[in-house]
Amino acid sequence: MQLPHTDAAMAARPPDTALSRSDDGTAGGLLPRFSGALLGALLAVDFALIGANSLAFALSGRIPVLLYLDEEGNLPSWWSSTKLLLAGLLLALVALRSRRVDRAAWMLGLVAAAFIAMSIDEASGRHERAGLMLDRLIGNRAGTAFHRTGLWVFAIGLPAALAMAWGLRRLARFLGQVPGSPRRLLAGICLLMAGALGVEAAGNFVFPEGALEAGRLRGIDLAVISLEEFLEMAGGSVLLWASLLFADRHWSTRGVHDLLVPLRPAEGPRAPAARPGSGLRATPPYGSLLGS
Length: 292
Known about the structure:
By secondary structure, the chain is mainly α. It contains eleven helices and no strands. The chain has one domain (about 30-255).
C-alpha cells in the first residue's frame, strides 16, 4: 500500500523527542514571564532575614535564636536548606527524565545530588562536625590562624566547589539546550561558595578567638556573618531560580509549568452533554451529592 505524500513525509520524520531536543520550550513556559519577579521575591526574603538580624541587634544587642544567621535548625537555616533541596530535586527530575536519551543526564544527576547534600548539610551542620573530625587527625585549631573554621574550608569545601564547577563545565552542552542555564547555575554556585568558603575563611582574621563561643558579638562580627550568610542565601536563591527555569524550558520536562498554573473552570472535569431525545440528562461534574 502506497502512503499519501503527506503521510509518507510524516513517517519519515524523526520522533518528537528528537525534534524537541533542539527546542527549549520558551514559548509555552510559565516562568519566562515571571522569572525576574521570582528571583526578586527570593532575594527579598534573603534581605528580610538579614535585616531582621541587624534590627534585633541594633535594638537590644541580642538576636533571637530563631532568627540568628549563624545558627542551625532555625528560620534562616531552613530557608537556605529548602531552596537547595528544591534546586536539587528539579535538576534530578530532568536527569531522571532524560537519562536514557542523553548520557550527560548522569552527570546532571551527580550535580543534583550535590545540591541535595548541601541542603542536608545546611540544616544539620555536618561540615562543622567534619571539621572537628579533621582537627583530631591533623591537630587542634586553637591558637592557629584558622581558629574559627579549621582547615575544612581547604580540605573539604574547596575540592567540593571545584568538583561542581568541573561538573557544570562537562554539562555545558546539555545545559546549553536551555540558553543561559550554564551561566545562571555557575553564578549561583559562585555566590554560595564566596560566602561559604571565602567570607567564612576571612572571618578567622576578624573574630577574636573564643569571642562568639562566649556570646560576645560585636557590630563588625555581625557584619561579617551577615555578608557570609547573605551570599550563601543569595546563591541558593539563584540556584533555585536557575533550576526552575531549566526544568520549565528543557525538552524533557517542559510540562512542569503546567503543574504550576491553576486550572481554569473550563479545564475542569466535565460530563458529556445529553443528546436531545436520548432520555438521558446531564449530570453535575462531580456527580450528585445525594446519589441521584
